[in-house]
Protein backbone atom coordinates (compact mmCIF):
# COMPACT_ATOMS: atom_id res chain seq x y z
CA UNK A 1 0.00 0.00 0.00
CA UNK A 2 2.88 2.39 0.78
CA UNK A 3 4.33 1.76 -2.67
CA UNK A 4 0.96 2.55 -4.26
CA UNK A 5 0.70 5.84 -2.36
CA UNK A 6 4.19 6.85 -3.44
CA UNK A 7 3.46 6.04 -7.07
CA UNK A 8 0.20 7.99 -6.91
CA UNK A 9 1.97 11.01 -5.41
CA UNK A 10 4.73 10.89 -8.01
CA UNK A 11 2.22 10.64 -10.86
CA UNK A 12 0.44 13.84 -9.82
CA UNK A 13 -2.72 12.28 -8.37
CA UNK A 14 -4.90 14.57 -6.24
CA UNK A 15 -4.08 14.60 -2.55
CA UNK A 16 -6.44 14.88 0.38
CA UNK A 17 -4.91 18.17 1.52
CA UNK A 18 -5.77 19.84 -1.77
CA UNK A 19 -9.49 19.01 -1.55
CA UNK A 20 -9.30 16.21 -4.10
CA UNK A 21 -8.31 18.56 -6.94
CA UNK A 22 -5.04 18.37 -8.88
CA UNK A 23 -2.77 21.41 -9.02
CA UNK A 24 -3.35 23.64 -12.01
CA UNK A 25 0.31 24.73 -11.97
CA UNK A 26 2.59 22.32 -13.80
CA UNK A 27 6.35 22.09 -13.98
CA UNK A 28 6.30 23.63 -17.44
CA UNK A 29 4.28 26.58 -16.15
CA UNK A 30 6.88 27.17 -13.45
CA UNK A 31 9.72 26.97 -15.98
CA UNK A 32 7.93 29.38 -18.28
CA UNK A 33 7.30 31.80 -15.40
CA UNK A 34 11.00 31.69 -14.45
CA UNK A 35 12.04 32.31 -18.04
CA UNK A 36 9.60 35.21 -18.30
CA UNK A 37 11.00 36.76 -15.14
CA UNK A 38 14.54 36.36 -16.46
CA UNK A 39 13.57 37.94 -19.77
CA UNK A 40 12.10 40.92 -17.94
CA UNK A 41 15.25 41.26 -15.87
CA UNK A 42 17.40 41.06 -18.99
CA UNK A 43 15.30 43.71 -20.74
CA UNK A 44 15.53 46.01 -17.71
CA UNK A 45 19.32 45.59 -17.56
CA UNK A 46 19.66 46.30 -21.27
CA UNK A 47 17.41 49.36 -21.02
CA UNK A 48 19.12 50.77 -17.92
CA UNK A 49 22.59 50.02 -19.24
CA UNK A 50 21.84 51.62 -22.60
CA UNK A 51 20.54 54.77 -20.92
CA UNK A 52 23.56 55.04 -18.60
CA UNK A 53 26.02 54.41 -21.41
CA UNK A 54 24.28 56.80 -23.81
CA UNK A 55 24.33 59.58 -21.22
CA UNK A 56 28.12 59.40 -21.32
CA UNK A 57 29.01 58.25 -24.83
CA UNK A 58 26.74 60.58 -26.83
CA UNK A 59 27.92 63.85 -25.24
CA UNK A 60 31.53 62.67 -25.49
CA UNK A 61 31.10 61.84 -29.19
CA UNK A 62 29.49 65.25 -29.84
CA UNK A 63 31.92 67.24 -27.71
CA UNK A 64 33.36 69.11 -30.70
CA UNK A 65 29.89 70.03 -31.94
CA UNK A 66 28.29 71.17 -28.70
CA UNK A 67 28.43 74.92 -27.85
CA UNK A 68 31.05 74.60 -25.13
CA UNK A 69 34.15 76.66 -24.30
CA UNK A 70 37.51 75.26 -25.28
CA UNK A 71 38.85 72.53 -23.06
CA UNK A 72 42.11 74.45 -22.52
CA UNK A 73 40.66 77.99 -22.48
CA UNK A 74 41.73 79.61 -19.18
CA UNK A 75 40.08 82.49 -17.33
CA UNK A 76 41.65 83.12 -13.94
CA UNK A 77 38.83 85.47 -12.98
CA UNK A 78 36.43 82.50 -13.01
CA UNK A 79 38.46 79.98 -11.04
CA UNK A 80 36.66 77.20 -9.17
CA UNK A 81 33.14 78.31 -9.93
CA UNK A 82 30.57 75.85 -8.52
CA UNK A 83 28.32 73.75 -10.76
CA UNK A 84 25.29 75.39 -12.43
CA UNK A 85 27.14 78.69 -12.64
CA UNK A 86 26.47 81.05 -15.51
CA UNK A 87 27.71 79.29 -18.65
CA UNK A 88 29.38 76.45 -16.73
CA UNK A 89 27.17 73.44 -16.03
CA UNK A 90 29.89 71.50 -14.19
CA UNK A 91 31.64 74.62 -12.89
CA UNK A 92 35.29 75.49 -13.53
CA UNK A 93 38.62 74.15 -12.32
CA UNK A 94 41.53 75.84 -10.56
CA UNK A 95 42.62 77.58 -13.78
CA UNK A 96 39.15 78.77 -14.82
CA UNK A 97 38.67 76.09 -17.49
CA UNK A 98 35.18 74.75 -18.12
CA UNK A 99 34.98 71.40 -16.34
CA UNK A 100 32.23 69.95 -18.56
CA UNK A 101 34.25 70.67 -21.68
CA UNK A 102 37.33 69.05 -20.18
CA UNK A 103 35.36 65.98 -19.09
CA UNK A 104 33.82 65.50 -22.54
CA UNK A 105 37.06 66.07 -24.44
CA UNK A 106 38.96 63.91 -21.97
CA UNK A 107 36.37 61.19 -22.44
CA UNK A 108 37.26 61.02 -26.13
CA UNK A 109 40.82 60.01 -25.25
CA UNK A 110 39.77 57.58 -22.51
CA UNK A 111 37.09 55.89 -24.63
CA UNK A 112 39.36 55.69 -27.66
CA UNK A 113 42.06 53.97 -25.64
CA UNK A 114 39.52 51.64 -24.02
CA UNK A 115 37.74 50.64 -27.24
CA UNK A 116 40.98 50.03 -29.16
CA UNK A 117 42.42 48.05 -26.26
CA UNK A 118 39.44 45.69 -25.96
CA UNK A 119 39.33 45.16 -29.73
CA UNK A 120 43.00 44.19 -29.82
CA UNK A 121 42.71 42.03 -26.71
CA UNK A 122 39.60 40.35 -28.14
CA UNK A 123 41.35 39.43 -31.38
CA UNK A 124 44.44 38.12 -29.58
CA UNK A 125 42.42 36.24 -26.95
CA UNK A 126 40.03 34.59 -29.39
CA UNK A 127 42.84 33.54 -31.74
CA UNK A 128 45.10 32.18 -29.01
CA UNK A 129 42.32 30.50 -27.04
CA UNK A 130 40.79 28.91 -30.14
CA UNK A 131 44.13 27.50 -31.28
CA UNK A 132 44.90 26.14 -27.80
CA UNK A 133 41.50 24.52 -27.37
CA UNK A 134 41.19 23.06 -30.86
CA UNK A 135 44.68 21.72 -31.55
CA UNK A 136 45.86 20.98 -28.01
CA UNK A 137 49.40 19.64 -27.65
CA UNK A 138 52.21 22.18 -27.77
CA UNK A 139 49.84 25.02 -28.72
CA UNK A 140 47.73 24.43 -25.61
CA UNK A 141 50.85 24.14 -23.46
CA UNK A 142 52.38 27.39 -24.70
CA UNK A 143 49.17 29.40 -24.38
CA UNK A 144 48.37 27.97 -20.95
CA UNK A 145 51.85 28.76 -19.61
CA UNK A 146 51.63 32.32 -20.96
CA UNK A 147 48.24 32.74 -19.29
CA UNK A 148 49.53 31.46 -15.96
CA UNK A 149 52.65 33.63 -16.12
CA UNK A 150 50.73 36.80 -16.89
CA UNK A 151 47.97 36.16 -14.35
CA UNK A 152 50.63 35.67 -11.68
CA UNK A 153 51.94 39.22 -12.16
CA UNK A 154 50.36 42.23 -10.41
CA UNK A 155 48.36 43.97 -13.12
CA UNK A 156 48.87 47.61 -12.22
CA UNK A 157 52.56 47.16 -11.42
CA UNK A 158 53.12 45.47 -14.78
CA UNK A 159 51.36 48.31 -16.59
CA UNK A 160 53.43 50.94 -14.77
CA UNK A 161 56.65 49.09 -15.58
CA UNK A 162 55.90 48.82 -19.29
CA UNK A 163 54.80 52.46 -19.52
CA UNK A 164 57.97 53.56 -17.72
CA UNK A 165 60.09 51.60 -20.20
CA UNK A 166 58.38 52.65 -23.46
CA UNK A 167 56.86 56.04 -22.58
CA UNK A 168 53.30 57.17 -21.78
CA UNK A 169 51.95 57.57 -25.30
CA UNK A 170 48.44 56.68 -26.44
CA UNK A 171 49.73 53.82 -28.61
CA UNK A 172 51.82 52.30 -25.82
CA UNK A 173 49.00 52.52 -23.26
CA UNK A 174 46.53 50.97 -25.69
CA UNK A 175 48.85 48.04 -26.41
CA UNK A 176 49.70 47.60 -22.73
CA UNK A 177 46.03 47.41 -21.69
CA UNK A 178 45.27 45.05 -24.60
CA UNK A 179 48.08 42.70 -23.58
CA UNK A 180 46.91 42.87 -19.97
CA UNK A 181 43.34 41.85 -20.84
CA UNK A 182 43.75 39.09 -23.43
CA UNK A 183 44.01 36.22 -20.86
CA UNK A 184 40.35 36.62 -19.84
CA UNK A 185 39.17 36.23 -23.43
CA UNK A 186 41.62 33.42 -24.16
CA UNK A 187 40.55 31.31 -21.18
CA UNK A 188 36.87 31.55 -22.04
CA UNK A 189 37.47 30.89 -25.75
CA UNK A 190 39.61 27.86 -24.97
CA UNK A 191 36.91 26.31 -22.76
CA UNK A 192 34.24 26.95 -25.40
CA UNK A 193 36.34 25.46 -28.19
CA UNK A 194 37.03 22.37 -26.10
CA UNK A 195 33.29 21.74 -26.05
CA UNK A 196 32.71 22.60 -29.72
CA UNK A 197 35.44 20.39 -31.13
CA UNK A 198 33.73 17.26 -29.77
CA UNK A 199 30.44 17.96 -31.56
CA UNK A 200 29.38 15.95 -34.64
CA UNK A 201 29.64 18.82 -37.13
CA UNK A 202 33.40 19.04 -36.52
CA UNK A 203 33.83 15.33 -37.24
CA UNK A 204 31.65 15.67 -40.33
CA UNK A 205 33.77 18.56 -41.59
CA UNK A 206 36.92 16.51 -41.15
CA UNK A 207 35.35 13.56 -42.98
CA UNK A 208 34.60 15.89 -45.88
CA UNK A 209 38.32 16.65 -46.13
CA UNK A 210 38.58 20.07 -44.46
CA UNK A 211 41.84 20.74 -42.69
CA UNK A 212 42.17 21.76 -39.08
CA UNK A 213 42.60 25.51 -39.64
CA UNK A 214 39.72 25.52 -42.09
CA UNK A 215 37.40 23.76 -39.65
CA UNK A 216 38.46 26.13 -36.87
CA UNK A 217 38.01 29.29 -38.90
CA UNK A 218 34.84 28.40 -40.79
CA UNK A 219 32.85 26.44 -38.25
CA UNK A 220 34.20 26.54 -34.70
CA UNK A 221 35.13 30.19 -34.20
CA UNK A 222 31.78 31.55 -35.52
CA UNK A 223 30.03 29.46 -32.84
CA UNK A 224 32.13 30.84 -29.97
CA UNK A 225 32.46 34.48 -31.04
CA UNK A 226 29.13 35.52 -29.54
CA UNK A 227 29.78 34.43 -25.93
CA UNK A 228 33.38 35.62 -26.17
CA UNK A 229 32.24 39.04 -27.39
CA UNK A 230 30.23 39.47 -24.19
CA UNK A 231 33.45 39.18 -22.19
CA UNK A 232 35.10 41.69 -24.52
CA UNK A 233 32.23 44.11 -23.87
CA UNK A 234 32.61 43.72 -20.12
CA UNK A 235 36.36 44.33 -20.46
CA UNK A 236 35.61 47.79 -21.87
CA UNK A 237 34.72 49.03 -18.40
CA UNK A 238 37.94 47.56 -17.01
CA UNK A 239 39.98 49.16 -19.80
CA UNK A 240 38.54 52.60 -19.05
CA UNK A 241 39.28 52.12 -15.35
CA UNK A 242 42.86 51.03 -16.09
CA UNK A 243 43.47 54.02 -18.34
CA UNK A 244 42.02 56.35 -15.71
CA UNK A 245 44.20 54.77 -13.03
CA UNK A 246 47.32 55.20 -15.13
CA UNK A 247 46.42 58.82 -15.87
CA UNK A 248 45.72 59.48 -12.20
CA UNK A 249 49.18 58.16 -11.32
CA UNK A 250 50.80 60.31 -14.02
CA UNK A 251 51.56 57.42 -16.39
CA UNK A 252 48.71 58.11 -18.83
CA UNK A 253 48.67 60.17 -22.01
CA UNK A 254 50.56 63.37 -21.36
CA UNK A 255 49.40 66.92 -21.98
CA UNK A 256 47.76 68.40 -24.01
CA UNK A 257 45.52 65.30 -23.70
CA UNK A 258 42.93 65.74 -20.96
CA UNK A 259 41.89 62.34 -19.67
CA UNK A 260 39.46 61.51 -16.88
CA UNK A 261 42.19 60.26 -14.56
CA UNK A 262 44.31 63.38 -15.05
CA UNK A 263 41.31 65.66 -14.41
CA UNK A 264 40.71 63.89 -11.09
CA UNK A 265 44.41 64.02 -10.25
CA UNK A 266 44.58 67.76 -10.92
CA UNK A 267 41.57 68.42 -8.70
CA UNK A 268 42.48 66.23 -5.72
CA UNK A 269 44.26 69.12 -3.95
CA UNK A 270 40.99 71.09 -3.86
CA UNK A 271 38.63 68.29 -2.83
CA UNK A 272 37.81 69.91 0.53
CA UNK A 273 36.93 73.30 -0.96
CA UNK A 274 35.90 72.45 -4.55
CA UNK A 275 34.35 69.00 -4.39
CA UNK A 276 33.07 69.05 -7.97
CA UNK A 277 36.58 68.89 -9.44
CA UNK A 278 36.85 65.25 -8.35
CA UNK A 279 33.27 64.14 -7.78
CA UNK A 280 31.76 64.98 -11.16
CA UNK A 281 34.45 63.30 -13.32
CA UNK A 282 34.30 60.30 -10.97
CA UNK A 283 30.52 60.09 -11.39
CA UNK A 284 30.92 60.11 -15.18
CA UNK A 285 33.36 57.20 -14.99
CA UNK A 286 31.09 55.31 -12.60
CA UNK A 287 28.05 55.88 -14.82
CA UNK A 288 29.87 54.50 -17.86
CA UNK A 289 31.19 51.46 -15.99
CA UNK A 290 27.77 50.64 -14.52
CA UNK A 291 26.11 51.06 -17.92
CA UNK A 292 28.55 48.79 -19.74
CA UNK A 293 28.29 46.13 -17.03
CA UNK A 294 24.49 46.22 -17.14
CA UNK A 295 24.51 45.82 -20.93
CA UNK A 296 26.88 42.87 -20.68
CA UNK A 297 24.84 41.18 -17.96
CA UNK A 298 21.61 41.79 -19.87
CA UNK A 299 23.00 40.28 -23.06
CA UNK A 300 24.31 37.27 -21.14
CA UNK A 301 20.93 36.69 -19.46
CA UNK A 302 19.19 37.16 -22.79
CA UNK A 303 21.27 34.45 -24.45
CA UNK A 304 20.50 32.08 -21.58
CA UNK A 305 16.74 32.61 -21.68
CA UNK A 306 16.65 32.45 -25.48
CA UNK A 307 16.90 28.67 -25.28
CA UNK A 308 13.29 28.51 -24.07
CA UNK A 309 10.96 29.65 -26.87
CA UNK A 310 8.41 32.31 -26.13
CA UNK A 311 5.54 30.32 -27.62
CA UNK A 312 5.71 27.41 -25.22
CA UNK A 313 2.19 26.37 -24.38
CA UNK A 314 1.01 24.75 -21.22
CA UNK A 315 0.21 21.05 -21.54
CA UNK A 316 -3.38 20.09 -22.19
CA UNK A 317 -5.41 19.17 -19.15
CA UNK A 318 -6.45 15.53 -18.91
CA UNK A 319 -10.05 14.46 -18.76
CA UNK A 320 -9.82 13.53 -15.10
CA UNK A 321 -8.48 16.99 -14.23
CA UNK A 322 -11.26 18.64 -16.25
CA UNK A 323 -13.85 16.57 -14.38
CA UNK A 324 -12.27 17.54 -11.07
CA UNK A 325 -12.43 21.27 -11.95
CA UNK A 326 -16.10 20.99 -12.84
CA UNK A 327 -17.07 19.56 -9.43
Shape: globular
The whole-angstrom Rg is 28 Å
| Strand count | 0
Tell me the major beta sheet.
none
Q: Could you give me the name of the CATH homologous superfamily of one domain?
A: MetI-like
- Average pLDDT rating: 81
Total helix count?
11
Distance between the termini: 28 Å
Structural class: mainly alpha
- In N-to-C order, the SSE pattern is HHHHHHHHHHH
Low-confidence stretches: 1-18, 308-327
Report the top-level CATH class of one domain. Answer: Mainly Alpha
Q: State the helical fraction.
A: 55-70%
- The third-level CATH topology of one domain is MetI-like fold
Named CATH architecture of one domain: Orthogonal Bundle
Q: What are the main properties of this structure?
A:
disordered C terminus; 11 helices; mainly alpha; MetI-like fold; disordered N terminus; 0% strand; 327 residues
Folded structure, characterized:
Helix 8 packs parallel to helix 9. The protein contains 11 helices and no strands. It is mostly helical and 327 residues long. Mean pLDDT is 81; it is low at 1-18 and 308-327. It has a domain at 88-305: Orthogonal Bundle (MetI-like fold). Helices cover 69% and strands 0% of the residues.
Amino acid sequence: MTTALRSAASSGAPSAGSGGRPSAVTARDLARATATRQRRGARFKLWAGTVCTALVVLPVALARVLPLPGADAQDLSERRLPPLSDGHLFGTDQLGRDLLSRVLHGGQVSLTVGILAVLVSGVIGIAAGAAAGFFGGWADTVVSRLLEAQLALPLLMMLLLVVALFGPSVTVITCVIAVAQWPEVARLTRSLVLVEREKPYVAAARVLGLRGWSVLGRHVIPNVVRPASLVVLLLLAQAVLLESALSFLGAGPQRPFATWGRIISDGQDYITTSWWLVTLPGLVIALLVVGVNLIGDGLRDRTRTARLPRGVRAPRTSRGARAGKGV
